[in-house]
Amino acid sequence: MSFFLNLKSSKTVKCKKIPEGSHAHELLKYSSATLGSGNIKMAVQLPDGEDINEWIAVNTVDFFNQINMLYGTITEYCTTESCPVMSAGPKYEYHWADGSTVKRPIKCSAPKYIDYLMAWVQEQLEDENVFPSKIGVTFPKNFLTIAKTILKRLFRVYAHVYHAHFRDIISLNEEPHLNTSFKHFIYFVQEFSLIEKRELAPLQELIDKLMVET
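Given the sequence above, the corresponding structure tokens read:
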């Protein structure tokens, strides 16, 4: 999104590029233009005549890129020493498992967890069997389930950043970027019921505040 052009990313996985000229790129441009008008509610709604899977796919890629860039700016503050566990406050701790290479959840530091998470998401986005980029190729039957898992895990990065690194975000003058990105994310996942309410609990107070400010 345009409001991220001035962010300086650090050591993160590469952002996922949506090919220019593709239908997905046109959908992203539509979303960006609508967001630019300040109407987040309209920006997340499924455009008339569009496939819901493709709309969710395009936005999932966009959120991955946004979070990747935002987290990349604070990696020097998010270390094994400062964040020995992946958490979103004292009540919420996350252990990593991807169901294939790591089947049993493991406890790890926040930077390690986020490294695992972002690499896993990137792997899903690059898999043509999950996120097809060619016109006419249908999405798999379990696409929505995979997208929900991706978005649930991306939310955890927002949650960790808000709980553990908000002062760092303020010191870098990135609070408006973070809040705009998160507000867009929340409107989107709520529009299509993509994350269960209990998963949003670590930031529920903030979510309620952002919704009132709309």
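Helices lie at 23-36, 40-44, 52-72, 110-126, 143-171, 175-191, 204-213. Try to locate this feature in the token string yourself.
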